[in-house]
């Protein structure tokens, strides 16, 4: 820690999502943003101007890792860089807040797990939906048995817009579900409290902006026997949408609408406003809550409940969706660290 009792924080990658991380660090009383990094100095300067901060500027990742005053690093680079950068940052003794995804390749998952288990520092993953008030209420009701046995879980991620730069390219992105739909995949397994065990998927090309199919759907099976359908669309004319539907023996939840057996005589859903943001802008995402939790875990030297290990199943499910879609919809079984395609 720095002499003033604050953690030295750095953000590597100064694109759109970096603003959410920087803003969160600036709001935490135990954090000080001491460095920003990017391959382009102009990107760093733009973030410094945006937040009115003076920081060290690094265009070389290793130089940033060598800075002894940096305790926590946020990784906000293109998807295909996250796994290697996380491994290098942990090896350098840094605490790592990696934005989703943690990896886009199946073979990187075992490497990440091995590195995090050997590290003396801690990790956090940017699955912001876990801090959405609506999602937390849904999870609470499921945990308390309000719905009884939940047998169907459907989740959607729809956010149609032209994402600039690297997000157009499959080699840097992975697929639609890895880029954006992973939020809803993780949200579903987080609320249900059960891992995803099997997926069967397909995708279609819509428009010519993306190099890869920007629309994907998947049938899924959970460890606890529930089934469901996941959809992801990066195109179309729609507002930012992250639907979650849960059907149980004693009740049903559709986003912020509830129909519960305990309320005798209920004729239709009732709506409960949780105050959850419905915007896709990074400033509306609960990054401050993620940073606050991460800092507290570091202070108490304990693992974050939202660490890399907790995010593995959702990522394998997304990679499995891509693998199934590329193989004509053949089912993919999800292991602890690997995927198995049906013969």
Walk me through what this model shows.
The chain is α/β, with parallel strands linked by helices and about 350 residues long. The protein has 2 domains: about 5-130 and about 285-305, 3-Layer(aba) Sandwich (Rossmann fold); about 130-280 and about 315-340, Dihydrodipicolinate Reductase, domain 2 (2-Layer Sandwich). It is built from 10 helices and 16 strands. It has a 10-stranded mixed sheet, with helices on one face. A 6-stranded parallel sheet has the order 3-2-1-4-5-6, with helices on both faces. Helix 5 packs antiparallel against helix 10 (about 310-325) and helix 6 (about 135-145) packs across helix 8. The chain is globular and about 60 Å long.
Looking across the biggest beta sheet, what order are the strands in?
A: 14-13-12-11-7-10-9-8-15-16
% residues in beta strands: 15-25%
Structural class: alpha/beta
Low-confidence stretches: none
Outline the secondary-structure elements:
Blueprint: E1 7-12, H1 18-27, E2 31-37, H2 41-51, E3 56-58, H3 61-65, E4 72-75, H4 82-91, E5 95-98, H5 108-118, E6 123-125, H6 133-143, E7 150-158, H7 170-173, H8 176-192, E8 196-204, E9 215-222, E10 227-233, E11 244-248, E12 251-254, E13 257-260, E14 270-271, H9 287-299, H10 308-326, E15 332-334, E16 339-341
Parallel strand pairs: 1-2, 1-4, 2-3, 4-5, 5-6, 7-10
Antiparallel strand pairs: 7-11, 8-9, 8-15, 9-10, 11-12, 12-13, 13-14, 15-16
Helix pairs in contact: 1-9, 4-5, 5-10, 6-8, 8-10
